[in-house]
Specification:
The chain is α+β, with helices and mostly antiparallel strands. It has 4 helices and 11 strands.
């Protein structure tokens, strides 16, 4: 998943050998037996008992069984009709894992890179990567506005870990410096009831911006939905909340 700066900067006033050892010993030779009359010994009758066949090892369970693929996630992303007039798909932002899965990964993040909160793939701030994803973004060039949407799927209960980390971002990153305007960005966060199994909304503001940026993270089963909306009119929060709610509803019962 890429890290792309958002349109917030454009809104400036002007986010881890088995060694096989064999040994043998020579046994002492037995004394030769005294000569005896040859005794005819009947040959042993062939065994009629079938030899035992080793039991086959059970097949390993598929760790990705039941998890949505990138192709399936792509179909759940909000369509063009969900965006206001003037917004068009940024084709360079449309990516997904297709019908295959990628290996999950966890990178230790002793100190969060708070600047990632200013990019579209801001979930990477957690250092946890899932097994499938789909993402894209719509941009209104005339209004310097952007809406980016992403769905990431994780194995087991990892999605709960991710949303738990995202729900504490404002504690780790109460502010950061916007590279494009060199201005301080203030980060505020609160729970967002009614969206998915658990959700949070994060607002970002800066005195150097016209408008602001809103981030929404919502978990639906094994999936985490993340949305970023930047706007120069102050409508970013409404846009991000509505978009995340629509995607979460589409994932219900599937993820």
């Amino acid at each position: 998943m890429r890290f792309t700066p958002t349109a917030a900067g454009i809104l400036a006033a002007a986010v881890l050998p088995l060694a096989l050892t064999s040994c043998s010993s020579a046994a002492p030779k037995a004394a030769a037996p005294a000569a005896t009359a040859a005794v005819s010994t009947p040959a042993a009758a062939p065994s009629t008992t079938p030899s035992a066949t080793p039991a086959a090892a059970p097949a390993a369970a598929d760790p990705n069984a039941g998890l949505l693929t990138g192709t399936q996630l792509k179909a759940v992303l909000a369509p063009a009709s969900a965006f206001a007039a003037g917004f068009a798909l940024d084709t360079t932002s449309a990516r997904d894992t297709g019908d295959t899965y990628q290996l999950p990964a966890v990178t230790e993040v002793p100190t969060p890179d708070c600047v990632r909160l200013g990019g579209t793939s801001w979930t990477e701030i957690t250092g946890i990567a899932g097994v499938s994803f789909a993402e894209n973004a719509y941009i209104d060039k005339n209004a310097s506005a952007e809406s980016a949407q992403e769905i990431d799927v994780y194995r087991d209960t990892t999605a709960k870990t991710v949303i738990g980390a995202l729900g504490k971002l404002s504690l780790a990153c109460p502010s950061y410096t916007d590279a494009q305007t060199s201005s301080k960005v203030t980060v505020a966060e609160k729970p967002l009831p009614g969206v998915g199994d658990e959700a949070y909304v994060i607002t970002e503001t800066s005195p150097a911006w016209k408008g602001g940026t809103t981030l929404v993270a919502a978990r639906v089963g094994t999936a985490v939905v993340t949305v970023l909306a930047s706007s120069g009119t102050g409508a970013a929060t409404d846009t991000a909340t509505k978009l995340a709610g629509q995607i979460a509803a589409g994932l219900k019962g599937k993820a």
